Amino acid sequence: MKTAQPFRRDRARLPAAERRRQILEVTTGLIAERGFWGLSMQDVADGCGLTVPGLLHHVGSKDNLLVAVLEHRDEADLRSLAGELGVPADGLWTEGPSAVTLPQVCAALVRRNAGQPEIVRLFAVLEAESLAPDHPAHEYFRVRQQRILSSLAALVPAPADGRAVASQVVALMDGLQIQWLREPDTFDLAAAWDAAAARLFS
């Protein structure tokens, strides 16, 4: 009961947009720790100082909350990646000649991911769980995978098979990230990527 009163006071002060941001951040941490199937709406509500009905007022349902978390993280990562590469977020994946190369994009992605292990773990857990057709993020990850492959393939110069190169890049990056997540204290993700990329892009 001692923690409930501050939560109620905080609830009254937060604007809707800030409250939504808080909900997404709390949910992100919980899913990264437990996976979607281990996520309790009560725990999310407690972490935000809300009742479950109050939480549902903001997100609608547990499935909606999951998709909102994924979309929020993808948008944040896109803005960060574009900023690091010095290009507009809406112009990062464009048709025709690009201001950035595939090796530059991949190196920036790895640097970004190396600085946010909790987010990488979140996506790794959910991507594995969502292989089940009845998972609420199954379609989200299917579409996301196709979008990523197409975006990376567009950066592959001719005459190489862009789709094949993109598939190899994603497989390599995902595999290295899994090794890093298992042994973060001894596995240097950025160094491992640099060594692998030198061979892949040679």
TrEMBL record:
Q: Which residues carry the record's DNA-binding region feature?
A: 40-59
Q: Which UniProt keywords apply?
A: DNA-binding, Repressor, Transcription, Transcription regulation
Q: Which domain of life is it from?
A: Bacteria
Which positions fall inside the HTH tetR-type domain?
17-77
Q: Show the SUPFAM superfamilies listed in the entry.
A: Homeodomain-like, Tetracyclin repressor-like, C-terminal domain
Family annotation (Pfam families)? TetR_C_6, TetR_N
For this UniProt entry, the molecular function terms from Gene Ontology, in alphabetical order, are: DNA-binding transcription factor activity; transcription cis-regulatory region binding
Q: Does the record bear Ubl conjugation in its keywords?
A: no
Listed name of the protein: TetR/AcrR family transcriptional regulator
Q: List the taxonomic lineage.
A: Bacteria, Bacillati, Actinomycetota, Actinomycetes, Micromonosporales
